[in-house]
């Protein structure tokens, strides 16, 4: 009806023009060429509109098109019929974002994660070794301060390219809270693990065998074996205590610093330098607390970065694999707990 009425309106509009142009006074007032041009344009518009109506008439009626589709969509919203099934892959695709697995841009960004994690592992393990090798009175304090500075610098270096994760904990937490997709998180974590191995290889190439054996390449250890009068003695921290330390410290790390970076309102207000500095300071404080509170020889302190622990374990091996799962399971539990916490926050207080 709408199409027919439009055609009738166009034809009715053309008739007065034709009658007026053929009248005695029309030709003397209006230029005949302009009238003919106007008539030609109106005719072309009418023909095009008629062709469009004829094409639409041959299209099959689909659910979700026209007034009927609107009613069907409204009904399906309550009854959960086939349209709801059609929408579920869209939601799943939004979470997974599988096309990012083949995105050259994402893989290029992961190079920053790879290099950043490699430098992080090399620098942090070197700091751990040098802090104890120099035999200062406050090795934990010096180590924590240097780690805070290192992390701040590396975050500032990688943030413009990849978002500055350089830690599987941050990538996993970002995916669970909806900041990035699971596909991007998987690529980042893979790059971070490769970077951890490269960083450990670089460290192994510059230290002598004695330091490598004494400090286990600065890797994550729960226990070590030391000689004693009664033979080899295992010293360190119990697995249960180490697991709880990983969970608690990683959750505090996410809650006290990473959430500020995830919150666009706070991140914009504070600025990139301040946010990265806060993250570095929080990591330094947690490292200091975990190494001083336990006061246990053989325990390297809380990991909070599975990629950093994986590199030395793959390169050095041996006792570094004992309890290695703790440095993965603890952060994963903490990320899940952090994601649940963000879901409990009222939506009006979220600023993602």
TrEMBL record:
Transmembrane stretches, start-end: 109-129, 141-162, 182-203, 215-237, 243-262, 269-289, 325-342
Cellular component GO terms, alphabetical: membrane
Pfam families in the cross-refs: MIP (PF00230)
One term of GO molecular function: channel activity
Localization (cell): Membrane
Membrane-topology annotation of the record: Multi-pass membrane protein
Keyword Membrane among record annotations: yes
Assigned keywords, A-Z: Membrane, Transmembrane, Transmembrane helix, Transport
Keyword Ligase attributed: no
Record PANTHER family: AQUAPORIN AQPAE.A-LIKE, AQUAPORIN-LIKE
Family label: Belongs to the MIP/aquaporin (TC 1.A.8) family.
Protein name as annotated: X intrinsic protein
Native organism: Gossypium schwendimanii (Cotton)
Lineage: Eukaryota, Viridiplantae, Streptophyta, Embryophyta, Tracheophyta
């Amino acid at each position: 009806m709408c199409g027919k009425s439009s055609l009738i309106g166009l034809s009715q509009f053309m008739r007065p023009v034709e009658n007026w142009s053929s009248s005695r006074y029309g030709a003397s007032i209006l230029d005949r060429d302009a009238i003919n041009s106007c008539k030609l344009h109106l005719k072309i518009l009418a023909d095009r509109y008629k062709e469009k109506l004829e094409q639409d008439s041959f299209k099959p009626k689909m659910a979700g098109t026209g007034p009927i589709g609107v009613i069907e969509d409204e009904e399906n919203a309550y009854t959960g019929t086939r349209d709801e099934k059609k929408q579920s892959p869209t939601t799943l695709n939004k979470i997974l974002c599988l096309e990012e697995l083949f995105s050259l841009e994402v893989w290029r960004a992961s190079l920053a994660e790879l290099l950043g994690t490699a430098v992080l592992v090399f620098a942090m393990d070197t700091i751990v070794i040098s802090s104890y090798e120099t035999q200062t009175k406050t090795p934990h304090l010096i180590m924590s301060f240097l780690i805070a500075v290192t992390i701040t610098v590396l975050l500032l270096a990688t943030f413009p390219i990849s978002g500055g994760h350089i830690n599987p904990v941050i990538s996993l937490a970002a995916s669970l809270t909806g900041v990035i997709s699971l596909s991007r998180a998987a690529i980042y974590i893979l790059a971070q693990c490769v970077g951890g191995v490269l960083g450990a290889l670089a460290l192994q190439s510059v230290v002598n065998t004695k330091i490598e054996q004494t400090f286990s390449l600065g890797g994550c250890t729960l226990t070590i074996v030391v000689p004693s009068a009664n033979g080899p003695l295992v010293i360190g921290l119990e697995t249960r205590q180490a697991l709880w330390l990983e969970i608690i410290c990683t959750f505090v790390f996410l809650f006290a610093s990473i959430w500020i970076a995830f919150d666009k309102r706070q991140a914009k207000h504070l600025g990139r330098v301040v946010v990265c500095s806060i993250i570095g300071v929080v990591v330094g404080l947690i490292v200091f607390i975990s190494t001083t509170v336990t006061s246990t020889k053989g325990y390297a302190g809380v990991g909070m970065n599975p990629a950093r622990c994986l590199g030395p374990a793959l390169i050095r091996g041996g006792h570094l694999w004992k309890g290695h799962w703790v440095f993965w399971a603890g952060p994963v539990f903490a990320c899940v707990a952090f994601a649940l916490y963000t879901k409990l926050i009222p939506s009006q207080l979220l600023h993602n």
